[in-house]
Amino acid sequence: MKDLGKPWYVLGMVERNRKKRSLFISQEMYINNFLATFGMQDCKSASTLQVPGSRLLPRGDTNAPAASINYWRAIGLLKYLVTCTRTDLAYSASCLAQFLNDPSSEHEAAFKHVLQYLSGTQTWGISLGELGINSVVTLYCDSDWGSNFDSRSFSGSCLFFYGLVGGKTSKWDVVSLSSTEAEYRSISNCCQDVCWILELVSNFGLDLKANV
User: Fold this and answer.
1) How crowded is residue 20: how many other Cβ atoms within 10 Å of its Cβ?
2) How far apart are CA 120 and CA 88, in angstroms?
3) Which CATH number fits the domain that encloses residue 165?
4) β-sheet with 164-171: strand ranges across
5) Of 49, 147, 157, 166, which is most buried, counting CB atoms within 10 Å of its CB?
6) How many CB atoms are closer than 10 A to CB 1?
7) Is residue 183 within 8 Å of residue 143, measured between CB atoms?
8) Domain boundary at 89, 115, 130, which?
């Protein structure tokens, strides 16, 4: 047995900086394997998650079904990445997951475009704990209005406290009658998250201010 000193890299995804009292969490190795699984390890990178102006629709009679990839597995692997370290992928993953029952070649192409984005952002991750950064509980939220093919609205949020500690995107079960209603629904949902996190940290004896 050999003493290698204090750990600075844990589980292949957590990098520790004792001087800054911070952690950096990323999944570069997972992303490399993810790209290789679908033969995209040498693909050209993309600067956006989706082709600007594109809109995903259910497969029609004239659209070919997805054939070259296991779509269920593809979305499952993408969702795991979203859950762990890459909240920036949440919206695209949710959009693609709507078509699990009958994916088309267009949905397959959209998924591969996400992989191209990942190819250029493999080293991205979450920085936590550095003093003086995001020391106030802060939540950002936004919503669209009826942009989905079924006229439903999407909303998303990101929660920061010494770094990004939570984020999500979801499609509403009801149809909002205006953009204002969609925004208020998003804010209401996010305020519930703020109340939950404040209640959680109060159990640790901390008194935090919330800013939304």
Assistant:
1) 14
2) 14
3) 3.30.420.10
4) 164-171, 154-160, 137-143, 210-211
5) 157
6) 3
7) yes
8) 130
**Do 173 and 118 lie in a common domain?**
no
Q: Which of 115, 130, 145 delimits the end of a domain? A: 130
Quick: pLDDT tens for 80-103. Answer: 999 989 999 988 998 899 999 999
The DSSP letter of residue 115 is: H
CA distances from 140 to 101, 204, 210 (A): 32, 24, 11
Which helix (DSSP H) or strand (DSSP E) does residue 210 occupy?
strand 210-211
Condensed to tens digits (0 to 9), the pLDDT of residues 24-65 reads: 899 999 999 999 999 999 999 999 999 888 888 888 777 788
Q: What pLDDT, on a 0 to 100 scale, did the predictor assign at position 188?
A: 85
Helix (H), strand (E) counts: the chain: 5, 8
Answer whether residue 2 is part of any domain: no
Smallest CA-to-CA distance from 169 within 107, 104, 79 is with 79
Distance, CA of 121 to CA of 81 (rounded, Å): 13
